[in-house]
Design a protein that fits this description.
56% of the residues lie in helices and 3% in strands. It contains 13 helices and three strands, in the order H-H-H-H-H-H-H-E-E-E-H-H-H-H-H-H. The protein is globular and about 65 Å long.
């Protein structure tokens, strides 16, 4: 099973070109499944639907969340589909098994005023302040995921044409850069980044105080720091900026397909979750305008 798991993960990485985070998620799920197989002395090539149901029940008994069980099932299904293509099995034991429907969580979103307050916090008085200003403006201007932002190289930004190219993940996409974000980014690239770099050959766009590529943890700490500086009580993560980006675009007239393209969603249903925020004051409008409200 070890060999087939390795081949499966290689397939996801090199053929499907999944992001490192998604790949790690698949790996955790499939290794957990392997541990169950080994513990119960089962043959993964001869698993039946009943055996799969037993595995899912064991997860439920272990108090795993519905979303976790659903994700595990999806991973195992992908694994057996891979084995089918490789002619290692004759049937997919997950066929006909349906996980419980997982309700999509309502994403946390900042108001325009809260975003403005957050982005006002970094001051252009030192190298770190210049970088942080550019980074937060960039995150809100593009709606990119943290892993995508920290993976960017300088060459991915086209200052003249005002856009950034995201090469992370399965699909390459181009995202416009607004004037405020671009101004902060250019200032960082010209004044702060060259000084912060320890190795001039380092292509990373955003670097830490040691001159190395910024990490996810580093990015998260920066957002948390300025959230506290702004005295915003809401929990703010880099992903909340992504949600806010999409919601504010939608409220101001952008269409779903365009937002989907900028966010890099493969399925429009992932983007449709933001529709609930489009008319947040609808109830108030109704109450004020309808004679029998």
């Amino acid at each position: 099973m070890d060999k087939q798991i390795k081949l499966f993960l290689d397939f996801l990485q090199y053929d499907k070109k999944l992001s490192s985070n998604t790949l790690q998620s698949y790996k955790r799920d499939i290794l957990q499944y392997q541990a169950y197989i080994d513990k119960n002395k089962l043959n993964y090539l001869k698993m039946e639907q009943k055996d799969m149901n037993d595995y899912l029940k064991s997860m439920a008994k272990a108090n795993k969340k519905t979303s976790t069980i659903s994700r595990n099932l999806a991973t195992i299904r992908a694994f057996y589909q891979f084995l089918l293509r490789e002619k290692k099995v004759k049937r997919d034991p997950t066929e006909g098994i349906h996980s419980e429907k997982v309700e999509k969580k309502i994403p946390a979103v900042l108001t325009a005023k809260e975003v403005e307050l957050l982005l006002e916090q970094p001051k252009n008085v030192d190298l770190k302040g210049i970088r942080d200003k550019a980074m937060l403006e960039f995150a809100y201007a593009t709606g990119m995921r943290v892993t995508e932002i920290i993976s960017l190289d300088v060459e991915d930004v086209n200052v003249e044409e005002c856009y950034v190219t995201c090469n992370k993940g399965a699909k390459k996409r181009t995202i416009p850069l607004g004037s405020i974000s671009l101004k902060a980014l250019v200032e960082y690239m010209e004044k702060a980044r060259p000084v912060m770099l320890k190795d001039e050959h380092n292509p990373a766009l955003f670097v830490n105080v040691n001159g190395k590529r910024l990490t996810r943890q580093g990015f998260w700490k920066i957002v948390k720091f300025y959230k506290e500086q702004a005295h915003i009580t809401k929990e703010i993560t880099p992903h909340v900026l992504r949600h806010s980006f999409a919601t504010h675009l939608l409220r101001n007239g952008a269409d779903l397909k365009s937002i989907q393209a900028m966010l890099g969603h493969s399925d429009i249903s992932s983007t449709q979750v933001y529709m609930q925020f489009k008319n947040e004051n609808l109830q108030d409008i109704y109450n004020k305008a309808h004679p029998r409200a």
